[in-house]
């Protein structure tokens, strides 16, 4: 229990520990490094179907060779700094946190606005909708990536009424379960006209969402006829009876190994066809739910790159054309 100081250790021991720590931080795991059942249990944990204790208890049998269940969880959790593509202070961008009114939702919502620092005239807007942990550093990075493609990118934080993203993924998931989802959905509905009316925006707005945000992208397509494009990544499908209201073209991305979400595909696609909705749908072989999120081992570089390019091409056609 006694707290040691650096002076208590040989300098070579400290040097070796520093090398070990650096190596541990730099090692990035892939989905193939985990048993499929571990990935399935992690998906249940991430989406609130089991709690942390339940996850640790169930993966304990996979913890072998000096690896503990807690170490498995740590390896699966996001590494934001290592995956960041665009620095927060990138001089090519102008970024800020702004608020908008949501009278039918939670009242006031805070979000992250990113746009090119140098631009000629107005640009189309892209609403970026996070996963079920609020506006974390990864989604802010995604917004910056989109802004560099010459868009006004705006990412609201659904956790605003509970103090905003807390800086911890476990706490964020816990807070997310406390939201009034009816009001939260209204917050995202209200974000679209806010973005459309921004002085930097042409008024043409698309939406891209991931996981929970993919479901919100689908929802917005059924709620907002003025929406110009919607790109849901592995999101929950809207009720079949709401599909008739979709006016925007859809680009839909799914992971192959995602039974929970993929169970809704047949009914959704049947409704899209029956209502003559303009859509494209892609399922990426061998991928896990969350394959586009490059902060976790479920990330699939090839599939994510292809899905991203398709998304940028889709926005170019529908927001600039």
According to CATH, the homologous superfamily of the largest domain is Alpha/Beta hydrolase fold, catalytic domain
User: So how many helices?
Assistant: 12
Proportion of residues in extended strands: 15-25%
Helix-strand pattern = HHHHHEEEHEHHEHEEHHEH
Give me the secondary-structure category: alpha/beta
What tags apply to this protein structure?
single chain; 321 residues; alpha/beta; Rossmann fold; 8-stranded mixed beta sheet; 12 helices
Task: Put the structure in a nutshell.
This protein is α/β, with parallel strands linked by helices and 321 residues long. The protein has 2 domains: 11-77, no CATH class; 85-320, 3-Layer(aba) Sandwich (Rossmann fold).
Explain this structure to me?
With 321 residues, the chain is an alpha/beta fold. It folds into two domains: 11-77, no CATH class; 85-320, Rossmann fold, CATH 3.40.50. The protein is built from twelve helices and eight strands. It has helices spanning 11-26, 36-46, 52-59, 69-76, 80-83, 137-147, 169-176, 181-196, 212-223, 259-262, 265-274, 301-320, and strands at 93-102, 107-116, 123-129, 152-156, 201-210, 229-233, 250-257, 279-288. The protein has an eight-stranded mixed β-sheet with strand order 1-2-4-3-5-6-7-8. The protein is globular, with a radius of gyration of 21 Å. The N and C termini lie far apart (66 Å).
């Amino acid at each position: 229990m006694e707290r040691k100081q650096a002076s208590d250790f040989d300098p070579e021991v400290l040097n070796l520990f520093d090398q070990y720590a650096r190596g541990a931080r730099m090692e990035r795991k892939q989905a193939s490094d985990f048993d499929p059942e571990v990935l399935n249990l992690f998906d249940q944990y991430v989406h609130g179907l089991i709690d942390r204790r339940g996850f640790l208890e169930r993966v304990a049998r996979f913890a072998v060779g000096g690896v503990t269940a807690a170490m498995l969880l740590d390896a699966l959790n996001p590494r934001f700094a290592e995956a960041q593509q665009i620095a927060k202070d990138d001089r090519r961008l102008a970024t800020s946190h702004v608020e908008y009114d949501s009278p039918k939702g939670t009242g006031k919502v805070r979000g992250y606005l990113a746009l090119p620092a140098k631009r000629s005239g107005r640009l189309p807007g892209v609403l970026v909708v996070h996963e079920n942990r609020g506006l974390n550093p990864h989604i802010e990075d995604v917004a910056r990536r989109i802004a560099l493609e010459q868009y006004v990118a705006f990412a609201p934080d659904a956790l605003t009424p509970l103090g905003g993203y807390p800086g911890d993924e476990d706490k964020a998931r816990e807070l997310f379960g406390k939201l009034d989802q009816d009001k939260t959905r209204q917050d995202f509905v209200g974000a679209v006209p806010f973005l459309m009316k921004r002085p930097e925006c042409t008024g043409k707005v698309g939406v891209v969402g991931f996981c929970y945000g993919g479901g919100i992208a689908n929802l917005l397509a059924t709620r907002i006829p003025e929406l110009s494009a919607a790109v849901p990544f592995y999101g929950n499908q809207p009720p079949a009876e709401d599909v008739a209201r979709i006016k925007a073209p859809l680009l839909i991305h799914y992971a192959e190994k995602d039974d929970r979400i993929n169970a809704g595909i047949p009914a959704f696609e049947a409704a899209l066809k029956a209502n003559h909705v303009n859509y494209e749908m892609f399922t990426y072989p061998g991928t896990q739910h969350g394959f586009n999120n490059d902060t976790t081992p479920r990330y699939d570089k090839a599939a994510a790159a292809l899905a991203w390019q398709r998304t940028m091409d889709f926005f170019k056609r529908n927001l600039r054309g």
